[in-house]
Amino acid sequence: MSAVRHQALPGDPAGHLPVTVLTGFLGAGKTTLLGRLLRHPGMARSAVIINEFGDVPLDHELVEHAKEDIVEVAGGCLCCTVRGDLSRAVRQIDLSRRRGRADFDRLLIETTGLADPAPIIHTLLTDPVIAHGYALDGIVTLVDAATGLATLERHPEAVKQAAMADRVLVTKTDLTGGRIPAGLAARLATLAPSAPPLPVSHGRIDPAALFGLAPSPATLERWLGATAAPGEHDHAGHDPNRHGEDIRAFCLRRPGPVRAHALAGFLELLSTHAGPDLLRLKGIVKLAEHPHLPLVVHAVQHIVHEPVELPAWPSPDHDTRLVLITRGIAEATVAELFDTLADAG
Ligand SMILES: Nc1nc2c(ncn2[C@@H]2O[C@H](COP(=O)(O)OP(=O)(O)OP(=O)(O)O)[C@@H](O)[C@H]2O)c(=O)[nH]1
């Protein structure tokens, strides 16, 4: 038996460990917030499950973490194709805790940006092993201050994420003058009236604001009633890189270095012309100018974020890898554009 201290939920004599579900549309800032939270001294005893859409996981290389209590679930959304994987991931990390290999008293689950939180909550509440040892402490939904309103208009997944929130964080308010834009605030007030939004910049928030939000039994009942029974969303043979009709993920890989101006041209062309259909781009790039210092790039719809240079390659894989999630844009078109610019570079 490990000597694990249990930090039970208040009023929970059974000593269930609290689980927080961190959700929010593609690129809303979930990984940024998580990275920052995990550096907070009060968060040292947290385990994390990260789920990524598509079969080329990158987040585990991009989340700065000094701890090993992180399990990555790749290859689809927890909400549709890999719900069984959520159970397995929680069971795996729970077994590590019981065997004394992992020492945590709080679990955080970061969903993909396309996830419907309802089936995830359903699994947490109904899987016998999970329900025995863990209890939902709250759903924290991140909404991007700059793209959030347009995203809520176009993507029902984003609406559901906001509607189920116990806490809404409006991220990137440094891009909107430190404020939540009025139109977005009004939309959120109707979607999540009991979760007034908090503005957040660069993931800076007191962790206490995110915990102890446990939804009431009546709310849980409502979700359980509204959610499909386990198995209904699990499609055998479902392509993990597809979501709905025309959203798909793909990865561009290039072993040779890429010149900075070729990369900048590619990002500029793509974000300007694909606009809202470039749901997400993230990647790690070997720049010709600094091949030993990998560059992390991000774009969310029409916004290309400030690239960040890492002090070292996070894994032995030193190829440039760009993961894209697009709506109705062919992989071949994007790959050709990238190759043309990189080859000419
Ligand atoms: N200016 C600004 N940029 C931010 C902020 N938070 C996150 N970003 C940037 O937004 C981009 C996306 O952030 P992530 O944390 O990767 O977003 P995510 O929600 O984890 O993305 P997915 O996992 O792909 O859905 C990155 O370039 C971040 O640096 C913020 O508060 N301000």
UniProtKB/TrEMBL annotation:
Pfam families: cobW (PF02492), CobW_C (PF07683). GO terms for molecular function: hydrolase activity; nucleotide binding. The keyword Cell membrane does not apply. InterPro entries: CobW-likC_sf, CobW-like_C, CobW/HypB/UreG_nucleotide-bd, P-loop_NTPase, Zinc-reg_GTPase_activator. It comes from the Bacteria. GO terms for cellular component: cytoplasm. The keyword Nucleotide-binding applies. Residues 247-342 form the CobW C-terminal domain. CDD domains: CobW-like. It catalyses: GTP + H2O = GDP + phosphate + H(+). Keywords: Chaperone, Hydrolase, Nucleotide-binding. Zinc chaperone that directly transfers zinc cofactor to target proteins, thereby activating them. Zinc is transferred from the CXCC motif in the GTPase domain to the zinc binding site in target proteins in a process requiring GTP hydrolysis. Belongs to the SIMIBI class G3E GTPase family. ZNG1 subfamily. This is GTP-binding protein. It comes from Marinimicrococcus flavescens.
